[in-house]
Design brief:
122 residues; single chain; 2 helices; alpha/beta; 35% strand
Length: 122
């Protein structure tokens, strides 16, 4: 029998302080879909995708990495800089990714497909 993966359900990051994390993620362009007090979680929309980014408050979270696709990583980098955030740039085979790190050490990347436009979402 095959496993039959249908797609992504949600991505999850553990965070030390959910309120601080919500404020950070709203600052970097994510929109809260809902929040649940117990266990303390918040789900953020990821563009028009059905899956979301789930943040769960944990005593000792293990940092993770998550990239989203954008049209222009340079424009995102400028917007994040205007908000006072430090970024790092990663050149990839498909384009450029700008990464930002949340207060719990999780990394969010904004990847464009400038080198392989035929692979980009349209």
């Amino acid at each position: 029998m095959t496993i039959g993966i249908l797609g992504i359900d949600n991505m999850m990051f553990g965070v030390r302080d959910l309120d601080e994390a919500i404020s950070f993620y709203e600052r970097i362009g994510f929109v809260v879909r809902f929040r649940v007090p117990a266990p303390p979680i918040a789900l953020f929309a990821v563009g028009n995708e059905r899956p979301g980014l789930l943040l769960r408050q944990e005593k000792t979270p293990t940092p993770g990495r998550f990239w989203v696709e954008v049209r222009n990583a340079d424009a995102v980098q400028s917007a994040l800089a205007e908000r006072g955030l430090q970024t790092a740039t990663v050149e990839t085979a498909t384009g450029r990714t700008v990464e930002v790190t949340d207060p719990s050490g999780n990394v969010v990347g904004y990847a464009d497909y400038r080198k392989r436009a035929e692979l980009a979402r349209h």
